[in-house]
Amino acid sequence: MKVGIIGTGSMGSVLLEAFIEFRALQPHQLFISNRTLKKLLVLSERHEGLNICRNNIQTVRCSDVIFVCVKPLQFASLIQEIKNDVRPNQLIVSITSPVQISHLENSLDCKIAKIIPSVTHKIGSGASLVMYGNRLDEKDKQILHDLLSYISKPMEIKESQARINSDFSSCGPAFISFFLTKWIDAAVEMTGSSREEITCLASEMLLGTGKLLTQGGVTPPQLQEMVAVPGGITAQALSQLNHSLDGVFHRLISTTHQKYDEDLEELDKLFDGPKINRPQY
Ligand SMILES: NC(=O)C1=CN([C@@H]2O[C@H](COP(=O)(O)OP(=O)(O)OC[C@H]3O[C@@H](n4cnc5c(N)ncnc54)[C@H](OP(=O)(O)O)[C@@H]3O)[C@@H](O)[C@H]2O)C=CC1
Ligand SMILES: O=C(O)[C@@H]1CCC=N1
After folding, report:
1. CA of 181: how far to CAs of 114, 120, 269, in Å?
2. Which ligand 1 atom lies nearest to the CA of residue 170?
3. In testing the pocket of ligand 1, which one of 16, 32, 33, 35 has its CB within 8 Å of the most ligand atoms?
């Protein structure tokens, strides 16, 4: 199988390097293009045999499956560029939540899927969210699922759930790291602790917590109960946290959805076709 990656920024590079690292693909099976050449040269220096394409059309012509890893508003011009070169048996995989499968099916004469990957795939971990378009058969679905299984845990979802699900799977690492950074800053400031030491403790704690939740058979509320003995220190701190965080997560979800709506509105203008329904929960 030959796999193309258009856009080798942050996420395109994570996918490419994870596919190689976890032996889903060998470099000679990958065909890549990016607006700026420098990023391609850096990757080709790291991975001998990688195919650098001179433009996106060449990436499309050389590949069976093509991951499009550009930002939402960069899609429309890209589609114009490649639309005459896609073939009906090719699979184009978009990795961004606001661009809808229907936007792409209306514009490209090929199979369309959408995935939302996560930076955690860099270490072969985390869930990838998978949505299949109408033109894929079972074999196509299996190919994409198998490819993603090397680097992640693929989970098929409804497209209407893509935004809220990616809040957790793909934005989540940034949100949790933000929380940890604030907590570590306070520890360093208030106790003079070594930032390095506290960061190491926090990271090990997060890894262990993740394993308990994924392999240890406990839920987040059960985990709190296991640690917070009644009348103890953790219970007191959790009560304070509960008070301080009142409404924070509702506002977080409103913010991600509002930005998604804004992007969707712009995309509706850029792509011809019917206006897309916003996610209704
Ligand atoms: N970062 C993450 O954790 C995740 C990101 N995503 C989604 O992935 C998409 C990309 O995000 P991210 O990788 O972070 O963004 P980046 O800005 O890092 O990467 C986008 C890349 O696309 C390139 N590009 C832009 N236009 C074109 C074009 N016409 N042809 C070829 N290459 C082009 C850019 O080139 P140049 O070098 O010139 O800037 C850049 O390298 C976004 O839609 C985001 O929502 C999804 C899940 C997780
Ligand atoms: O911040 C963003 O827009 C993207 C979507 C998911 C992760 N990063």
Report:
1. 32, 18, 39
2. 48
3. 35
What's the mean pLDDT when you consider all of the chain?
A: 96
Which of 28, 81, 85 is CA-nearest to residue 60? Answer: 85
**Residue 154: predicted pLDDT:** 98
ipTM field: 0.96
What atom in ligand 1 is closest to the CA of residue 118?
Answer: 48
pLDDT, tens digit, 9 for 90 and up, residues 188-221:
999 999 999 999 999 999 999 999 999 999 999 9
Closest residue to atom 28 of ligand 1, CA basis: 35
Residue the block writes with tokens 């394993």: 211
* Residue showing tokens 């060998």: 26
Q: How far apart are CA 250 and CA 229, in angstroms?
A: 28
Q: Which domains does the chain have, with CATH numbers?
A: 3-164 (3.40.50.720)
Write out pLDDT tens, residues 29-51.
999 999 999 999 999 999 999 99
Region 138-143: what's the mean pLDDT?
98
Task: Give the contacts of 5 (CB within 8 A, at least 6 positions apart).
Answer: 12, 15, 16, 30, 31, 32, 33, 59, 66, 67, 69
Task: Verify whether ligand 2 is closer than 6 Å to residue 165 (CB atom).
Answer: no
Tokens of 200: 């190491």
CA of 235 to the centre of ligand 1 (A): 43
Sign of the four-CA dihedral 155, 171, 152, 92? positive
